[in-house]
């Protein structure tokens, strides 16, 4: 089939890096900032950044409900870090007031924001990820971890005893940022999910 059209939600965060990684693995990446763009994509990446800000902007632009609806209808999605937080069904330490991360659903899981805490605000590791032959270079930046997964969720990797990569159906989420490394296997996995090959 022709290259799948994969959107990167481009409200805030590291959009350009995901566009580059998607191109590198043969997808046709586009930015998504409005309803028409959202409706046009075969799958969507929610990038890392600040989940409270992305939540606020989704709401302001009237995109939160359409995005929730597309996820509920089975649109493939991949969320990294802040994106993982937004794809959860429940968020702990979500913030307050207008600075609150609101879950979109997509994965039946409870995620804790900024879970790794001050001492290890940001760190790198080589993680073994289910289905991959070699460890993945994983960069964590004020990352969340997963505290609960539902029965339909597969845990693909753990760090500090907590799930940091998960999949439920066509939705993938990682606490870490593969887009800032030269290792594009997570993006390749997502493209394979979108095209029905994984
Ligand atoms: N701590 C950020 C948040 O809560 C996530 C950090 C990131 O995406 N690198 O959204």
Tag the structure with descriptive keywords.
single chain, 198 residues, alpha/beta, Rossmann fold, 7-stranded mixed sheet, 3-stranded mixed sheet, binds glutamine
Provide a brief overview of the structure.
Belongs to the glutaminase PdxT/SNO family. The protein is α/β, with parallel strands linked by helices and 198 residues long.
Report on this structure:
By secondary structure, this protein is α/β, with parallel strands linked by helices. It has a single domain, classed as Rossmann fold, CATH 3.40.50.880. It is built from six helices and 14 strands. The protein has helices at 15-24, 35-40, 51-60, 64-72, 82-87, 185-194; strands at 5-9, 28-32, 43-46, 77-80, 90-92, 95-96, 99-100, 109-112, 122-127, 136-141, 145-149, 154-159, 162-168, 171-174. It has a seven-stranded mixed sheet with strand order 2-1-3-4-14-13-12. Strands 5-8-11 form a three-stranded mixed sheet. Helix 1 (15-24) links the parallel strand 1 (5-9) and strand 2. The radius of gyration is 15 Å and the shape is globular. The model has no long low-confidence stretch (mean pLDDT 96). The site of glutamine (GLN) has 11 residues, from helix 5.
């Amino acid at each position: 089939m022709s290259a799948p059209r994969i959107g990167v939600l481009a409200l805030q965060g590291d959009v350009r890096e995901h566009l580059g990684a998607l191109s590198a693995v043969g997808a046709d990446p586009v930015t998504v900032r409005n309803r028409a763009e959202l409706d046009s994509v075969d799958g969507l990446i929610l990038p890392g950044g600040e989940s409270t800000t992305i939540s606020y902007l989704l709401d302001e632009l009237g995109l939160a409900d359409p995005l929730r609806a597309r996820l509920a209808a089975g649109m493939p999605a991949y969320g990294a870090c802040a994106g993982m937080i937004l794809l959860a069904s429940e968020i702990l330490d979500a913030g307050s007031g207008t600075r609150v991360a609101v879950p979109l659903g997509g994965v039946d899981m409870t995620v804790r924001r900024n879970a790794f805490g001050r001492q290890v605000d940001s760190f790198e590791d080589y993680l073994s990820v289910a289905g991959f032959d070699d460890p993945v270079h994983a960069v964590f930046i004020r990352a969340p971890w997963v505290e609960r997964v539902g029965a339909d969720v597969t845990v693909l990797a753990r760090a500090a005893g907590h799930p940091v990569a998960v999949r439920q159906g066509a939705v993938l989420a990682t606490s870490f940022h593969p887009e800032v490394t030269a290792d594009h296997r997570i993006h390749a996995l997502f493209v394979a999910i979108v095209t029905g090959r994984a």
